[in-house]
Every structure is written in structure tokens, then in C-alpha cells.
Design brief:
The chain has helices at 2-8, 80-90, 111-134, 154-165, 188-196, 204-211, 214-234, 246-256, 275-285, 292-298, 309-326, 328-339, 349-360, 363-375; strands at 13-14, 21-28, 31-43, 48-52, 57-60, 65-71, 96-99, 103-107, 146-151, 174-176, 182-186. With 378 residues, it is an alpha+beta fold. The chain has 3 domains: 2-71, SH3 type barrels (Roll), CATH 2.30.30.520; 80-237, Collagenase ColT, N-terminal domain (Glutaredoxin, 3-Layer(aba) Sandwich), CATH 3.40.30.160; 275-375, no CATH class. The strands form 2 sheets. Strands 1, 2, 3, 4, 5 and 6 form a 6-stranded antiparallel sheet that branches. β4 (48-52) and β5 (57-60) form a beta hairpin.
Length: 378
């Protein structure tokens, strides 16, 4: 997918029609595929980005295309029932479906764990949308049901996710895919039970008790982090495959990732000091280069370097926490500008710096304020 996107984005981008269905037959490796959907992007060289009715984005190069046609039928996303039928046919036969107001959860673990995850996601969804609405950025209802795939066993999760993540799947307990628009994870209570040598739990109370323990909390945080990404990319905060800075998208996810498993309603952890990120940032401060904030904002290089990623995430959290606390109105203005970005149109480093300083002023001055602010945190 990354190779396809890189190729499609090379040409100048042309406008996409607002209505109508595009039908493309193409080669995906040695396999012939057919996809129907909304044309999102057409490059000057006829590379395409197609949004299918199941929410999957397909990037198709000119060389892959076998045939192409279009008609004036309106684009209609699959209903929850249609999407459920399609995905159950694609997943192993042991999977079932659990539906909530916004989520379709596919699971082969206990119904209790699926229900617990559904309740957790819905609480997060309500809190997340309410938070931004109160600050002048109301979010949209998602166009598609929000899909989560939950495996009972880590081994089955790894087998499934390696096709998308490769060997990185070994170190990732759950992820949100920009291409498929789905979250994929495994039952965390099974892993915790194995560590304790006990049976897997299936009641909501026992699941919350297990996953509220300090040793399990970090894994729950990861799942919440990915769930925030899914909401943000489906409710108008970011467009999938737009050039939204990673410090910004990851900063938002980290702002909300502090879990609250003690309440059946609300999400009292929103905006709480993320102690893990704060500790990492304080460690980074010992050898932090003077242009650190500049490098964080101008491009995403630090996030993609395994040796620098942890410090980049910590600094992104610190910057986001500071801006939402001290520069909230400016932050919302910046958010509105970023939310308008279209897929596959890249900004260079200069453009990113210019857009940031347009809303927050000179980076050097803001960096000094940030460091003073963080130094007072505990």
C-alpha cells in the first residue's frame, strides 16, 4: 500500500467528482481484483485513490489498471448488516458480530469481552466528540460503522496482522489501519490470565478488574490510543492519507489515552497528566537538542526512526498538552486548518513550519514557554 500511495502521489492531483461510482479492474500482485467506489483522487498520470463501500481505500497505479468505467449511481456505504455479512465471510468461521451505536465488533473471544470493548469504545466516542464540540470544533457522524476485529488468541492475531504489519506485528498489541479503516487487536484478558496462570475472565466486572491493574494498564492504553485515531479519522478531524503532521495526530491520541476503567460513564482521564509520556520527556530533556521542537514540527522523520520515536512521542504529548491548556483557541484554529487537508497532497517542511507559526507565532518563543510550563508539572 505504501508503494502504491507513493506512486499515485507523484503526479499532479486532479479534482474528483462528488457523485457517481467508479469501477476499476486491476492487478494486485498476481491477483486480479475489482473495486467499486467513490473516486477520491485522480493523479495526472491516472493513478487513482478509490473509497469502496466497505470503507477500504484502494490506491491503484496506472500500470495496475486493466479496465475502468463509471456511472452516475450515488455512492452508498454498506449498511452495518451488509458490512457484517461481508467481513464474516472474510474472517475465520469462528467469528461473530456484536453491534453498538457506532461500532461493529467482530470477535472470536467471549461475548463478555466484546461487550466490554464496545462499552469502552462508546464511552470514549461520546467523551471525545463532546470534548471537541465544547471547544468549537463539532465532529461529524462517521460515514461508516467503526469496525474492530478482536482475536481470542495472540497467535491468531499475529498470523492475521503480519500481512499488513510484517514482523512489526510482534511488538504491536493492536492497531488502526488507514487503508482498511479498521482496528485489529486480541483479547488482553487472555494474555493477563496466562501471566497469572488463571482462566480467562468474561464478565464486565472481572475484565475491568484485570485490566485496571498497573501491569495491564499500558496495554489498555494502546488500544484506547488506536481507538482515538479511528474516531478522529472518521469524524472529520483528519482525512485519511492527508499530510497531517504526526506530532499532531499522535498528540491528540496521547491526550486521550489515559484510561478510566472505574466508571461506567464518562472518561475522567481526559487531559490528565500522562505520567509515562512526562517521564520520557523529562529523560529526553537531559540531552535534548536546541532545535528539537523545530524538527518535530517540520516533518515526521523522528517518529519513523526507532532510536528517536519514543522521545518524539513524548515531545508531541508535551506540546499538545501545553497548547490545549495554554493556547486553546489557537490550537482549534490550527486544527480547523489541518482538518481541511486533502488526501495525498504533501506539504514540505517549510509549509509545515509556516502553517504552525501562522497560528502560534515563532517556534523559538513558544518553545521557551513550553519548557517553562513542563518544568512545573508533576
Amino acid at each position: 500500500m505504501k508503494r502504491l500511495l507513493a506512486t499515485v502521489v507523484c503526479g499532479c492531483l486532479l479534482g474528483a467528482p462528488a457523485l457517481g461510482i467508479e469501477r476499476v479492474v486491476f492487478l494486485d500482485g498476481k491477483r486480479q481484483r475489482e473495486v467499486e467506489g467513490r473516486l477520491v483522487v485522480q493523479a495526472q498520470d491516472d493513478g487513482l485513490l478509490i473509497l469502496a463501500a466497505d470503507g477500504v481505500l484502494w490506491a491503484i497505479t496506472p500500470e495496475q489498471q486493466i479496465s475502468r468505467s463509471s456511472d452516475d449511481r450515488p455512492f452508498r456505504p454498506l449498511t452495518a448488516e451488509q458490512l457484517s455479512k461481508q467481513l464474516l465471510a472474510e474472517l475465520p468461521g469462528t467469528f461473530r458480530t456484536y453491534q453498538t451505536a457506532h461500532y461493529l465488533i467482530f470477535y472470536d473471544t467471549s461475548i463478555g469481552y466484546a461487550q466490554w470493548c464496545g462499552a469502552l469504545f462508546e464511552r470514549l466516542y461520546a467523551t471525545f466528540t463532546n470534548f471537541w464540540s465544547k471547544r468549537g470544533f463539532p465532529l461529524q457522524e462517521p460515514e461508516f460503522p467503526l469496525v474492530a476485529v478482536i482475536f481470542a488468541e495472540r497467535a491468531d492475531y499475529l498470523k492475521f496482522s503480519r500481512s499488513e504489519l510484517g514482523e512489526a506485528a510482534e511488538s504491536i498489541i493492536g492497531y488502526y489501519s488507514l487503508q482498511t479503516n479498521r482496528m485489529t487487536m486480541y483479547d488482553l484478558t487472555g494474555a493477563e490470565a496466562a501471566l497469572r496462570g488463571s482462566a480467562r475472565s468474561s464478565s464486565a466486572t472481572s475484565i475491568s478488574q484485570i485490566l485496571s491493574r498497573p501491569e495491564a494498564l499500558r496495554t489498555v492504553t494502546t488500544v484506547i490510543h488506536e481507538a482515538v485515531h479511528q474516531i478522529a479519522f472518521n469524524c472529520g478531524m483528519h482525512a485519511r492519507f492527508s499530510d497531517c503532521p504526526l506530532w499532531f495526530t499522535e498528540g491528540i491520541a496521547m491526550y486521550f489515552e489515559t484510561p478510566d476503567l472505574t466508571s461506567a460513564r464518562g472518561w475522567r482521564g481526559v487531559g490528565a497528566v500522562n505520567q509515562a509520556r512526562l517521564q520520557q520527556f523529562n529523560q529526553y530533556l537531559r540531552n535534548r537538542p536546541p532545535n528539537s521542537l523545530h524538527t518535530l514540527i517540520r516533518d515526521d522523520t523522528r517518529f519513523r526512526d526507532p532510536k528517536k520515536a519514543l522521545d518524539a512521542y513524548a515531545e508531541a504529548w508535551a506540546l499538545t498538552w501545553f497548547l490545549l491548556r495554554q493556547r486553546s483557541d489557537q490550537y482549534i484554529g490550527y486544527l480547523k486548518a489541518l482538518s481541511a487537508k486533502k488526501p495525498l497532497i504533501e506539504d514540505g517542511p517549510e509549509k509545515r513550519i509556516e502553517q504552525f507559526e501562522e497560528h502560534f507565532g515563532k517556534i523559538e518563543q513558544l518553545e521557551a514557554e513550553l519548557l517553562r510550563f513542563i518544568s512545573k508539572m508533576r
